[in-house]
Input
Amino acid sequence: MREPATSPHLTLARRLYERAHLTGEFRLRSGALSGEYFDKYLLEADPELLLEVARALAGLLPPGAQALAGLELGGVPLATVLSQVTGLPARFVRKRAKDYGTGRLAEGGPLAGLRVAVVEDVVSSGGQVIESCAQLRARGARVEAVLCVVDREMGGRERLAAEGLELRALFTMGELRG
Output
């Protein structure tokens, strides 16, 4: 259930939209073209806004979460600040395991056996999130929920659900457009 129209949630939506919404022609990771783009790095480079978003994301964490897994690259600053807000340990997940050094997919500590909340900035089709969650599960992490700042409403929620992953979005793109 969303908060009333005059809520802090709506105020945060407006601030995010004003700070990070761009128009033009953009190619998304999925290959789709879009006339709008949510530049999450503008959000993540703003310390006050990043902290406010992390505090709001904390309310979306599933009960019993034991660790946060920030996906490269945009999920890493979100998971770091969310870790500070919640006290949960953060892990930093690459798109692919390193082929040198430790060869790890995730840095910051073990994930095997832990209930992990995956943290991402924006979900469009969900392709990379699904790949990363599959890799985490293959390494023993118990992944059921994905937190994101923006669900672009491009089929990602449905694709994640088909993989047993619940998408918990702070905002949909429709909400940001208001």
